[in-house]
Design brief:
ConA-like_dom_sf, SPRY-associated domain-containing protein, 2 strands, 88 residues, elongated, 3 helices, PRY, 7% strand, Butyrophylin_SPRY
């Protein structure tokens, strides 16, 4: 219809739009199609960690308190770091 005549198409456009609006049905949610989101996402971080812990290699790190930023506190065993109140 668009290829035939531009004027004809423009004249018939309101009628075409009305037919399109009538033919569209309201979307209905099919029963049983929705997933139980909490069931699948509740333990997602744990499941990701469990799958990747065997892939990622663990390498111990020793931190040097002499080269750490002044607003960071290195633990006594030199494996953890915390930020002081000045950083927050």
């Amino acid at each position: 219809m668009m290829k035939d005549n531009d004027a004809f198409f423009l004249k018939e456009f309101p009628v075409l739009m009305e037919r399109v609006q009538i033919s569209q049905l309201d979307p209905q949610t099919p029963s049983g199609a929705l997933i139980d989101v909490p069931r699948y996402l509740d333990n997602l971080p744990f499941r990701v960690w469990r799958k990747t812990k065997d892939i990622v290699q663990y390498t111990p790190v020793i931190l040097d308190p002499n080269t750490a930023h002044p607003h960071l506190i290195v633990s006594d065993d030199l494996t953890n770091v915390k930020e002081t109140e000045h950083c927050k």
